[in-house]
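Same chain as my last thread, 303 residues:
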Amino acid sequence: MLWEYNVPVPPNLYNLQTANVGEMDNRGVEVMLGGVPVRTKDFEWSTTLTMSHNKNNLVSLSNDMYETDNYIDAGWLEEPTSMPVQRVYEGHSVGDFYMLKSTGLSNSKKGKGYWMIENPETGKSEMFVSGMRDSESAYRQYMGSGLPKINIGWSNTLRYRNFDLALQMSGAFGHKIYNSQRMFYENLNIGLNRYKSAVDPVYGRTLNTAQEPVAVSYYLERGDYVKLDNATLGYNFNTKNWKYVDKARVYVSGTNLLCLTAYKGIDPEMSYGDIYSFGVDYRNKYPTIRAFTFGVNFTFGDK
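reply #2:
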């Protein structure tokens, strides 16, 4: 794995050097099942189900020549929060949430409505103070993984006489998502574009208007979902008596049609392009669109 390492100047011209030093291990299994459960003169159903599981392990970040810390803070949230919610460290998986665990809101006169944070050393809850924001804060602790344990894909094609219906579904299970949108827009300290849910009770109390947005585990949600990614319904015309037309078909297709999930964000399907933010739903995410398409296909020939 490539990473930037601090090197001495001189003899190097610059104090950072990219080197292929890190080592990562991925082990998993993928299963595909397919078949035609039903086939009659007028009707046919074919289906394919895929399931995959992957276990990731960061083996090392250093060697004898290039050395760095055995962890990397990751999943940094946008300003003004500017806090990491993940930590990639040796012997563990990428996508591990490492953050402040909230247990409620303070009911004291001095800090009523401020976050209560669990001290991992004592197990007791303490009122939030600004020092807990630091990436090296002793109050951060492991809070689950943003990597799904199981990913599934399920495709089905049904044909009845001249009609055909294709359905494509997907899903992911056994992971968590950090909803930074709720963390920011459900905070009464934010003056613009607040969600209506900002006034909803938090742990049965009201969040103090002076409590700035803080990355706490209250906004860490289950990310399980099942989606109907695409459905296409078509009709194939009988062109036996059509001159110059071998095939003719009309169809209507829709994408992003249905999502079953308990996740409260815009879309539980995360992008896994950046290993330093698996499962982090950033505030400025562009919503997944729902689209419909109507089409006509003709195949011309000389009969």
